[in-house]
Amino acid sequence: MAYPEQLLIPMRADLTQYGVQETRTPEELDQAINAHGTVLVVTNSVCGCAASKARPAVGLALRHAVKPDAAVTVFAGGDVEAVAHLREKHLHGVPPSSPSLALFRDGKAVWAMHRFQIEARLAPEIAADITKAFDEFCARQSA
User: Fold this and answer.
1) Residue 80's closest CA among 113, 107, 114, 43?
2) Residue 133 near residue 61 (C-beta atoms within 8 A)
3) Residue 107 CA to chain centroid, in angstroms?
4) HSE (CB half, 13 Å, CA atoms) of 20?
5) Does the N-terminal peptide bond of residue 96 adopt cis geometry, omega within 30 degrees of 0?
6) CA-CA distance, 15 to 42, in Å (whole number)?
7) pLDDT band for position 143 (50/70/90)?
8) Do residues 113 and 130 touch, judged by C-beta distance below 8 A?
9) CA–CA separation, 127 vs 73, rounded Å?
């Protein structure tokens, strides 16, 4: 069951203000993940740790010099089919979590951060871990 869209609008804007694109359907999500390059996928949530920690951390991390080719989001409790598709197809075997982040390179998951890695920490600490992942997986690979 989805939350009322009116409730989600400001929480969606908390990420889109940083240039994160919404993917609200499984098809939009697949298109973003399967594009060549690196893609950060943020599973947004109505919880307090998403508001005070995860979303601000994403904004901080996206200021980093090295970043993914794209950043997209799905909303747990809002984009129900897209979130289920992400978990079943792209993050198969990874326990479901919201909020959460996953980094994909050429369509394959290479890094993930779960709620338990978010909820007891501050946004700058979370952003530091995200930027480490950017440095490791988003830097251009030499041929």
Assistant:
1) 43
2) no
3) 14
4) 32
5) no
6) 9
7) very low
8) yes
9) 16
pLDDT band for position 8 (cuts 50, 70, 90)? very high
Q: Could you give the residue numbers annotated as active site?
A: 47, 49
Which residue ranges form the domains of the chain, and what is each CATH number? 5-137 (3.40.30.10)
Query: CA 24 to CA 45: how far, in whole Å?
Result: 14
Per-residue pLDDT tens digits for 23-36:
999 999 999 999 98
Contacts of 47 (CB under 8 A, 6+ apart): 98, 99, 115
In which element (H, E) is residue 80 found?
helix 80-85
- Geometric angle at alpha carbon 90, from 68 and 62, rounded to 5°: 20
**pLDDT tens, position by position, 53-69:** 999 999 999 999 999 99
Q: Which two tokens stand for residue 96?
A: 């479901």
State the pTM of this model: 0.95
Cα-Cα-Cα-Cα dihedral sign, residues 5, 68, 101, 127:
negative
The partner residues of 74 in beta bridges, in order of sequence, read: 43
What does the pLDDT look like over 66-91, one tens digit per residue? Answer: 999 999 999 999 999 999 999 999 99
